[in-house]
Amino acid sequence: MRAPTDAARFAPTPERPVRAHTQFVDPDTDIAPHSHPWAQVAIAASGVARITVADATYLVPAWRAIWIPPGIEHIVSVVEAAELLTVYVLPQDGRAAPVAASASDWTRCRVLDVTPLLRELMLRLDTADDRHAPRDAAWLARERRVSDLVLDELDHAAPVRLGIAMPADKRLRTLCRSVLENPQRHATLAGWANEAGASERTIARLFRDELDTSFGAWRQQVLLGRALTLATQGKPMGLIAADLGYASASAFSAMVRRSVGVPPSRFFARG
Predict the structure, then answer these.
(1) pLDDT digits (tens, 9 = 90+) for 198-237
(2) Whole-number Å distance between alpha carbons of 50 and 61
């Protein structure tokens, strides 16, 4: 497990309320649990990352972002070799949300769509750390204008349903982690229950009690995340559907539409 970046070198301040840095992370790398006193926006400029918090795991494919409020401990796992762009945001007026934040709930993690404008603005942010020479007043003024635009675009970014709820029950959490690692190992709940050493009825009850959903609906979200990973590798939709056990591309397309409200061609479009 890799140690997290020394974030103090990129800490946001009242003078520089939005800071950024980039890092390249190899596949199958976990960055140890950590948190920050400021909010964080993590973007996979390439590859696929997975962010895990206490009650959920979030998939972040290329050029989508995850909002992580201050103080939330999280683990970053890189599924496909990734260039991670991290933006730190200083809480404003006692709240973690962007300055112009609407009534949306910014107190929990959420995956966001990254518009072309937000993408370009984030790429304009300086990624040098505090060991570099101080900037002059004109440079800082320009950075502040770009930062204000970043915050405004974040406020209007559309949420994307890519969160996968995780249970507190240790036995069920172990099973869920196994499904996340290899969702196709068993096609039915009976197979997963047998692997966990529990009855199918017990596992079904735990899903209802812990996550307020069925195993089938929960696994569907996992399969959607797996499909995103395969799409990042450039695989065609027909092959992805077959890999995930769907009888046809149309059945797979219907699942994507039900889950996220848009067709696969749009949902899997890469930045």
Answers:
(1) 899 999 999 999 999 999 989 988 888 888 878 877 888 8
(2) 8
